[in-house]
Amino acid sequence: MPRLPAAPPGWLLTELGPTLGLATVLAGSTRGGSDLVADSLARDRSWQAVEEGFDPTSRLRTAVVRTFLASPLGRSRPPATAIGLDALPGVARTAVALRDLEQLNTGEIATIMDRPVKGIAQHLAAVPVGHHDTEIAELRSLAPSVEEVSGGFVRATRAVRRSRRRRASALAALALAVVAAVVLPTVVLSHLPVEVRRAGEWRYSHEVKLADGWKLLSRSIEPEVESSVLQIPSGGADPADCTVTVRVAGVLPDLPGSRIDAARIQGRPAKIVIRPDDTVNVYWEYAPGAWASVECDSPEPVRRDLMVGIAEAVRFHDVRQALPYTLTAVPEGYRIRSVGETFAPIYGDVVWGPTVLLEPPADSYWAAVIVGPDLADLDGVSAETTVSCLDPDRSLCVSAFQMDDQVAPNRGMSRRTVAATLADLRPAADPSDRSTWFDASSLPG
Predict the structure, then answer these.
(1) DSSP per residue, 228-297
(2) Whether residue 133 has pLDDT greater than 80
(3) What is the pLDDT of residue 254?
(4) pTM, rounded to two decimals
(5) CB 3.0–4.6 Å: which of 31, 65, 321, 415 could bond 440 by disulfide?
């Protein structure tokens, strides 16, 4: 049997651009799109023989589509709570992506998918043209880099080799190994993995796909957890405030409640926890050893199906927190406690952030420090807060405040801490232009 190549041809990698967006729309995440393209390349041993200068776009598109349709993700039925593109079966999702993203007609789509034209036409007729354009554009913007695909190719090639060895052994026992090796290529995607953040990384590994009426209030990152706070209509007079919490691997959630039901969320093991007051919490293992949860605060218990629907709307991929400033260091003894921002007025009329919270040493009684807009306008902020700002609008300030209201603030220490933080604070070249902002992942550890 011909050996699988150790890497795709270099010229081919430069031609992947048009295919990366399609793969990400099909797979639903950056990592999934990268793995889908890499697996498609790894399955086809003839790429090495293709000469430079050949336009591979059509062939790559067909390879990616058929690999997706053969995978568990492409063959699986969407859960009843799924929304948007995720509510479409793999065949329908693929047909819609080829029509609305690739601008292909029904006959071309049927040929690429190797499906009857009549069936494809029925799938397309059920989804109006452009109905998912916003979601498709968002997913396309998450397309992986060529470098990510090149790295994924090595992993995919190893998986192909292992799969072929296992299948060859099984078929040999049935005296069919030679025939099967020729006519039954056997690789399918095992599982498109999700991003798992490492403790202390200042980035998100998730975002929530907002349904109609849902509002993202805030999001934040801490060393071992990240969270998104949502406001969601729940059928009562007031909407529910729901928190999606994503933990790094190894940080196990508490499971309070009088009853725990086993379930599946996004195809992964899950636990539905019902407390004595009928409050429902949802926990699921989104990756091996890594757990996420949904909890809602509402005057009335939120329905179980809505809680599951929120969990199903969580997407796992690399999401960056942009900051209109960065820190080159933190004051001695301090550490970064959290990074985040708000998107809706939570505290009065203030949309707060992006902010970085610096935590003092344990049992030091030193002031905590927030980098961001001026704290003075927020209700409940002590008049003893020490604030120094870099701009007249007071949108970029360093505020030191005593977290324990039973301890008198040390004004001298607060002033020195604020001054030390300001010395290491670097604003963006143009804070009004987000393209000049910094990636929070560059913050000091």
Answers:
(1) EEEEE--SSSS-EEEEEEEEPTT-PPP--SSEEEEEEETTEEEEEEE-TT--EEEEEEEETTEEEEEEEE
(2) yes
(3) 73
(4) 0.59
(5) 321
